[in-house]
Amino acid sequence: MAIQAGNSKGAMMQKRRFVGSEFVVATEYWHALGDGRLQCDLCPRYCKLRDGQQGLCFVRARQGDEIVLTTYGRSSGFCVDPIEKKPLNHFLPGSAVLSFGTAGCNLACKYCQNWDMSKSRETDTLADRATPEMLADAAQELGCCSVAYTYNDPVIFLEYAVDTAIACQEQDIKSVAVTAGYICEQPRKEFFHDMDAANIDLKAFSEDFYYKLTGGHLQPVLDTLRYVKHETDVWLEITTLLIPGYNDSDRELDEMTRWVVKELGPDVPMHFSAFHPDWKMMDVPPTPPVTLARARTIAMENGVRYAYTGNVHDSDGQSTYCHSCGTKLIGRDGYELSTWHLSDDGHCKTCGTRCAGIIDGPPGDWGARRMPVRLSAIP
What we know:
The protein is an alpha/beta fold.
């Protein structure tokens, strides 16, 4: 059984070949080694698999003489969220986004705050099923401006995410990737080609942190950030979860934010979010609000025009200000918007300076609601 989905942006046709059942899809990014194993080339883990073995991500596995995606069309659940929860503060502010994820992850973060899904090794986690076309239809019916591939990292279900993004294009629904950016060069091109916005985790600015706390490496993430910013039209925002004693020093924050301004530019928003004890780091205290405020100050002093605090109540730190005249452009209290001082095309009403981002008309009014949905219940 095979399917084809046309790309409305004119890119090559996406081709998927189902193997054995309708939820197992042959993948492209792998090659055979000389010892009988197959190497997955999706991400820099380069898992080397014998027949029947799964990669660390859990969802990509070897079956016979190929590597397949075992979770195509299967999800751990669907929910309508505010776009600011992704977090994206400069992409269709106030709008609703249909969010979903699958199971597994290609990193092994000891502090994972979605561990029940990202660390799942149970197919029962994937209780809901939906084709790409069903997801696009659901987003339309629910009044969502976009679909977010989130909760666990969407790069591991690349084929499902890309096909959904293409289906969404046919209904003018945007696609949002919430990802750690841990992906190889060739699949990176396919994955981001059909995305409209991305929030990429820059988990720290040291190789030591990445290796010891995530089981990954820093450089591939920096490569992804540069690629998305300079070689795509994807709107980019960055999130760093600050963990006390691990990645919150003044020196590291200074180096990180200087790198962002130099390599990506001053208009890429940065979100500094509060850690809470979870998974295998229950002995680490929550991030004090003062740490987030300090990170935001360092970022702005180094030229980041839009720096935010997250996972805490901080209206000032979560609002958007004009980088030219200082006027509050978008007031935020949690996920609720208050002040709106922008023209429909995103210019400051005081001085006329454009606010960076994708702003299309007046803000949405979804607010802070979180609405779990079952796609089978949608007319």
